[in-house]
Amino acid sequence: MKKVIIIAIIALSACQLNAQKRDIVEYHQNWDKQKMFWGYYLGLNQKDYKISYTDNNTHIAVTPAMGFNVGLIGDLRLHKNISLRIEPGLSSNTKTLAFTHIAGGAKDSIREVNSTYLRVPLLLKLNTDRYNNIRPYLIGGVSYDYNFSSNEDNPDDNYEGEFRMKKNNFTYEVGAGIDIYLPYFIFSPSIRGVFAINNELVKDNTPDSPWTGQVDYFGTRGIFLKLAFH
Q: How many CB atoms lie within 10 A of CB 8?
């Protein structure tokens, strides 16, 4: 009798699951068959800097603030699970640098860095197969970043209160996200890690400057939260 009851429960459960599957409406069933599509994104970011030094007596403390990013998406399908993606957009952020090894007031030891970048990432997106109305993915690639706030060409340096950074930079990024198929659009949240490839620092005109003389590498790193809509 117990066996009969167990078999009946399993059969009823299987029937219920099949009924639920039949009730699920899969939205935008032909969307992933497109060769190319466009979208847009907006989101938040928090950036600081990876810094290395040539001695142990130099230290720069970075205090990041929350920034924003916004841009467009172009997606070219290479395979049912692989696509090539370009995501040009703007990214803005503010950081405060404290040169803790420099004695004196804020005029000498504090610099505020306001940065607005034009970012042009070229990315490879690896999708899983679609399950009902969701499709997880991994994404990664490289980006050219143009710093609109750069003062690279300014002849003044930290001795006049100017902390200088390069205009042209390159980063790589990796992340993960999920495509959610909704009735009227596809919502695609993702989280990305972004890391500078080149040294972004423009050193002071004086080689032994206390601000930049002992800095070996100074590059952006950050976390981006992107909310995309297709």
A: 10
Helix (H) or strand (E) holding 78: strand 66-79
What are 146-192's pLDDT values in tens digits? 999 888 999 998 889 899 999 999 999 999 999 999 999 999 999 99
Count of domains observed in the chain = 1
The residue among 169, 161, 114, 166 whose CA lies nearest residue 142 is: 169
**Lookup: tokens for 123:** 């990315």
List, in sequence order, every residue forming a beta bridge with 49; answer none if it has no partner: 220
Looking up residue 134, the CATH number of its domain turns out to be: 2.40.160.20
Residue carrying the six token digits 């066996």: 3
Torsion of CA 212, 215, 220, 221, to 10 degrees: -140
Q: Is the pTM of this model over 0.90?
A: no
Task: Let me know: does 204 contact 211? Beta carbons within 8 Å.
Answer: yes
The amino acid occupying position 178 is I
Angle at 103 between CA 114 and CA 212, to 5 degrees: 50
